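Crash report, auto-generated. Payload:
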Amino acid sequence: MVGRTLTSVAIIGGGPGGLGSAIALSQLPCLRVTLYEKNSEPREAGAGISLSTNAWRVLDLLEASDGVWGGSKSNTHQRNAYTGKILSITQHPENSAVDQRGSIRARRARLQSALLAKVPEGVIQFNKKLVSLESLPGEGVRLVFHDQTEVAADIVIGADGIHSWLDQVVRRALFSDHQLHFTGNTAWRVLIPKSRLAHLPEITSTTAWWWGKVGHVYFSDVDDGRDKDPQFEITIRSYHEPEVVGKTVGWGIPATNQRVASRVETFDQRVRDAVSVVAEGEWREFAGFAGPRLDNITGWDKVALIGDASHPLFGAFGSGATFAMEDGWILARAIERTQFASQPAQKALEIFNLIRAPYYTRMYEHLDEVHEKLQQLQAEKEDFNHFLQAKVNHFLYADKDFIYKNDIRKVWEDYLSTE
Ligand SMILES: Cc1cc2nc3c(=O)[nH]c(=O)nc-3n(C[C@H](O)[C@H](O)[C@H](O)COP(=O)(O)OP(=O)(O)OC[C@H]3O[C@@H](n4cnc5c(N)ncnc54)[C@H](O)[C@@H]3O)c2cc1C
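Recovered output after restart:
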């Protein structure tokens, strides 16, 4: 299959994971790569996206970093949402030491465009919503789309994001008993012209998290000096939203101002003033989902799940797009490495699983530790102000270098040295 004749690879989904995979895989002459995206055009739901050293490293490998820029996060404040008290200021000097570009917050659409620009012409097919897939014994995979067309592919990459769960397509095809549940954690996100907030310099002058008891607000630049009409991001998170059966699946759907404002009505006046400049119809709502964790992110010896399709972390580390691109790059290396092997697809997926599955396990272990620590803090510190300060301190000083400084090329080199 791989090596002698062209191996066909079908990528499902054109988010950061699918696009990153398409770039990396299209560089391999042994493959014929097609990306199927359900939307009718390139589209990115959401607002801003954080990019750190790990992101720059994989974007460099994909030769897509030149098209990405955003607001610097070099001056980040943690604040009490009710009083505005500044609990901590991070200057991020360590980032500039590792990579001059530092940590930024960029428009999601900009990351999407930078990746799209590097995907060779003819690779992407829009308006192609996958509705089912089936393993063909001894052969590849049969894919059926909503327009009733079908294709066969030797290798399938499920890069269909959290929709892999909601629409029950690639992930559910492999792991049919897995169910997704609403976590109660909902985000509302918007990008607005920064000029609308000109009367609130305290809001616009730094990246800031304003922490409340059952939610927080995040403010950030997403542009730098080169943008004529810079945009500004506001994201509100609520941790304990009630489930409304049949309705709590909103992903990028509009939310009313009244619904969003009610989540911050007890917050500091400056936060409420900033939220009030958002026009009706601009907010988008994202409901958080979780499900069983996967030890194995491949199936049928010819299907790999990447990015949110395998591990929807709902922005827990603010690095999910990078994880998805890293997955795609490693998968390309594994396929390249095994192209002349006797069962190339199976071997490539084994390598991919061996490298990436434990990395996600480590992330979940980190989240479990944080969760445990928060519960312990909550039990110890009855007063909210004391609890919040301890929480901020704990979050800031927890070691997350394995995420933000991850060097995916080195990860591959390390694998080769132990192979
Ligand atoms: C509130 C919030 C904040 C976040 N903040 C950050 C951040 O700061 N930094 C960061 O890196 N990450 C962040 N993330 C996470 C990040 O958005 C995701 O991890 C990332 O988008 C995952 O990329 P992906 O390619 O796996 O999936 P997606 O981006 O979800 O892309 C999936 C694609 O598949 C397509 N698709 C779905 N179903 C089908 C189908 N059946 N057929 C064909 N196409 C299909 C979709 O249309 C979409 O284009 C955040 C997430 C949330 C919710």
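Post-recovery validation: The radius of gyration is 22 Å.
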